[in-house]
# Entry
Amino acid sequence: MKKFSTFVCALFATTILFAAETTLWEATYTDGVEINSEAIASFQADDTLRIYLTVPEGGANFKICYKGAPDWTETTIPSMESQWPWVNGGEDHFDLLLTQADLDAIEGKNIYIYQGENSLITKVTLASTPDSDPDPEPGPEPVNPDTLQPGETRVLWEGSEILTWNEVAEQPASVGALLAENDQLIVTVSAKGTADWPKVLLRDASSVAVGDDILLNDISEFPYEAVFTLTAAHAAALQGGFKLCGDGVTVTKLVLKKYKEEEQPVEPAAEYEYRTVWTGDVAISWNQEVYVGTEFDTYTAQADMLAGLQNGDSIKIYYAQAIEGAQFALTYKAGTEWSWTDLAVTEGEGFFAYRVASEELAMDIADHGLVIRGQGYHLTSIVIGTPKSTTAIETISNDRLPVTTKFLRNGQLFILRDGVIYTVNGQIAK
# Structure
């Protein structure tokens, strides 16, 4: 920093820029500004001290402090987060909203505004807050941070800051409270410098690093989005607020994206062609003392009832006269030893159903039959649903090629060539 000289402002202005802004000091060049206690006596809480500057493209900083008798110690104004606030290139003024704490601190003292390297202060004004507004215009509805929806994004900070282990984009606890597991904090990196290990990292309100650094050694295209995906532990650590840190990169934006669970695609319901293979009226019960009945064995009733069953077919068991608390069960005789195996069924309106899960099961059920069991209902019909097949979709024929037809059967592609059915791998289909 260059050394600064100060001088006393002799102009207590009467120039009114608009209804509530008064010029305190104005000059074409200076190394610093002093506003004495007489002018300060007119300041009120919620007034705005406005410093006009000419700022180079790379940005600049300056300092606002006060001092007075008896010891004339130089002290930073309470509202200033830093002794040297930074302003970006092209900005023409910096506003400091004066609080009652500021007024108490500077009462009877002088304010000193020192400009930093390359900045040039050109004017200082006081913008007073009117006591009332006879025709206030309704402003936008305040944004409730708690209303962030899953998948919604919010820009938390924008600017242009070079990270060399300094901390930027500090967020308060009210923003930290929004964070949850799987949320993303997305940092836009516009460039990287010559650091050996350019990186971005998160720090909590106490400047403790949270989570892993994002290293940018291999990144060559900018702007680049560095994404922090938060674990539950990360989110908890950042609840009190957080900030960005890093080394050798320029950051320009910080965005919060709330996690949204991806909706799983719903498979379209299969279209079936149904056929009824049995009708009747059989009371089903495995406890005849509670409900007089029996079980129904499809093989005993009709050996070929389920002949031709295939993988993916739906078996629907319709019933009537079910008592309260009726139970439904379906069993088949599996394998060569015909061991009894229960099948998981789903219940519908007036029926329960099972979808054949494999060709092996289809063969066992077709060969050995099903046993319909349960408690407290009357079996009325058995219906088989077969997925609809899509017939020929393409036919090729000319003088040199055999007649070829491609078609889908039960969701699988086959090729019919000169009366022989082949799989897409050229095998003869059985």
Summary: Residues 203 and 209 are 4 Å apart (CA to CA).
